[in-house]
Amino acid sequence: MRPVLLAVLIALALPVVANAQTSKPTASSAIATALNDPARKADAANDERRKAADIIAFTEIKAGSRVLDLIPGGGYFSRAFSAVVGPQGHVYAVFPEAYEKAEPGFADKLREVAKQPHYANIEVLLQPANRLSVPAPVDMVFTSQNYHDYPDKFMGNVDPAVLNKQVFDALRPGGLFVIIDHAAEAGSGMRDTDTLHRIDPAIVKKQVEAAGFVFDGESNVLRHPADTRTKTVFDKSIRGQTDQFIYRFRKPAA
């Protein structure tokens, strides 16, 4: 191949490689239809703020997918995932027992939702924080603003290595682990998990990769560069505007 032609081909390919690490997938019509489900009327008011369409597209789930929503809180994403995966899919909403003691009532409320025929594909599970398991391998494990909690007292000081290994085991080969969390200062490691409820993105990436995952990309839709990362996420001046990272990790197919 002539040198000039080779250089042109390389130049054209470079932007594709760079963008693979900071992707913002276009939400499909199936996702739009799911989010417009009339049953989600109350949730829909928060879709733009929470970037639901972008995040769901980033998770790569589709009709028939099996999803594990780890510590779903009020169930916002569990209900959205339910609409996307449909009756042939399944959503395991997993609450650690320690979390249920600290934040009682969330699991029961989501169980009531799951009793509705419309949300029959949601299954609520209550488990020890250090014993994550599901009845069948899943396509995606998702946790939003919770990863930083595992090393802390109220969750039983669970080593993130234990969590990541169990997530790895819960996934099918090629499955995805998607983590959203509040960013702490670069180089801070896990210093701020209990005080500011933040975690250094770099330590998350290091810990998850150590479990055997391959980093598969990130989304910047919840980034807020004005956040100094030095205040607690509950500070009124920053709440709802914290700098959040979204990382996607893939379990190797073989």
UniProtKB/TrEMBL annotation:
Keywords: Methyltransferase, Signal, Transferase. InterPro entries: S-AdoMet-dep_MeTrfase_Alr7345, SAM-dependent_MTases_sf. CDD domains: AdoMet_MTases (cd02440). One of its GO terms (biological process) is methylation. This is Class I SAM-dependent methyltransferase. Residues 1-20 form the signal peptide. Gene3D superfamilies: Vaccinia Virus protein VP39. One of its GO terms (molecular function) is methyltransferase activity. The keyword Methyltransferase applies. The lineage of its organism: Bacteria, Pseudomonadati, Pseudomonadota, Gammaproteobacteria, Lysobacterales. SUPFAM superfamilies: S-adenosyl-L-methionine-dependent methyltransferases.
